[in-house]
Amino acid sequence: MKNEYFKNSVGQVATRTYVIPEPESITFDCGKTLPHIQVAYETYGELNADRTNAILIVHALSGDAHAAGYHSPNDRKPGWWDNMIGPNKCFDTNRYCIVCSNILGGCKGTTGSNSLDPQTKKPYGMNFPVVSIRDMVKVQKKLIDFLGIQKILAVSGGSMGGMQVLQWAVDYPDRVAGVIPIATTATLSPLSIALNEVGRKAIMSDPNWNGGDYYDRTPPDAGLAIARMLGHITYLSDESMMEKFGRRLRDKEDYSYDFETEFEVESYLHYQGEAFTRRFDANTYLYVTKAMDYFDLSRETGALEKTFENVQAKFLIIAFSSDWLFPPYQSKEIARALRTCNKEVSYCELSSSYGHDAFLLEEKQQTLMITHFLQNLEEECEKE
Q1: Annotated catalytic residue within 159, 237, 322, 352
Q2: Helices (H), the chain
């Protein structure tokens, strides 16, 4: 039951699981299959009688199925997009049924490298097949089928979530009315691939990584923490870091002239890295970043315009001015290709100093556009 602690929230929620039946096994892009795929998911709000009010939220690299609400009153923080999902919020749970699942290859309930291999009864580790963004979407589609949703009103997500959004529009054009890719790209850039590789090497160079076989021993926390520190820098902007930290020293008035942590920004990064190791799996980081590296919507067709030829969904594309990880020009390329195909697309570049993290923090600006977009989708779907 909701109380003051859950004010302006969907309240206390629980993660559920769905197991894809073995006869419906999925062949991944790498050519391999798994005999058992479990999907962790959460829902907020209720499906209407026609099951036409469902919105699928897809998460970024470090996210999970817990997008909103609290698992218990003892939770320190709500779900990762709680500022956007809930009663009278952007994704209004009084109007819509919101679905969010942990991605294939994740470490928060959906089958991944830390899951038990039913044949060996040990975690898969590096025996887990390399998966793609398309594979993740295939699994999400199985969940949507299980929930009895014939057509999703909208799919939305930022960063790697935005990649999944685009894949949904391309692979299942008749199953989604609208898509909202935020702070994302249609093709991962060489810069992003390079950053991902440095993060992976940090993990794989940790002696505790042990070729990915560390589940019954000390995990490679040092390597994973460094990978997270590097990744976290890319989520911020020069302006936001100057505003938040400047060149302030931590607990001292002058330089120590040694190699101890002394700047506030250093302390912040160490905290982020250490905290990440308590909630994320190192092998999962390797697999998810590799899936991002492989993401290239135009690889098979040779051009985005050809890739988008058969899409039916309406697009709302959002980018942020200070995002240097997935800069606005990458979102503009998506919008330009869609317009060339005469698809219905709206593009908006929001001014923000938060960098790539803006999609998690700029709820007011996004809410104004997204709520209008969703209302138009509803009206048009009712006419069909």
Answers
A1: 159
A2: 133-146, 160-171, 190-204, 221-235, 238-244, 264-277, 282-294, 304-307, 328-340, 358-361, 363-383
* pLDDT-derived band at 8, boundaries 50, 70, 90: confident
Task: Report pTM.
Answer: 0.96
81 and 180 fall within a common domain: yes
- pLDDT tens per residue across span 43-100: 999 999 999 999 999 999 999 999 999 999 989 899 999 999 999 999 999 999 999 9
Contact 310, 173 (CB under 8 A): yes
Residue 4 pLDDT greater than 70, yes or no? no
Amino acid at 295: F
Query: What's 335's DSSP letter?
Result: H
Counts of helices then strands in the chain (DSSP H, E): 11, 10
Looking at the structure, tell me whether residues 47 and 146 fall in a common domain. yes
List the catalytic residue out of 64, 113, 206, 356: 356
**Tokens 């959004």 correspond to what residue?**
165
Neighbours of 149 (CB within 10 A): 19
Host domain of residue 327? 4-187+297-383
Residues 253 and 319 in one domain: no
**Catalytic-residue membership of 356:** yes
323 is catalytic: yes
CATH code for the domain of 110? 3.40.50.1820
Known catalytic residue at 71: no
Residue 230 CB partners (closer than 8 Å, separation 6+): 195, 198, 199, 202
State the DSSP string of 77-95: S--TTTTTEETTSSEETTT
Q: Which positions ≥6 away from 31 have C-beta within 8 Å?
A: none
- Same-domain check for residues 226 and 307: no
**Active-site residue, from 323, 352, 353, 357:** 323
Q: 211: which 2 tokens?
A: 């070729």
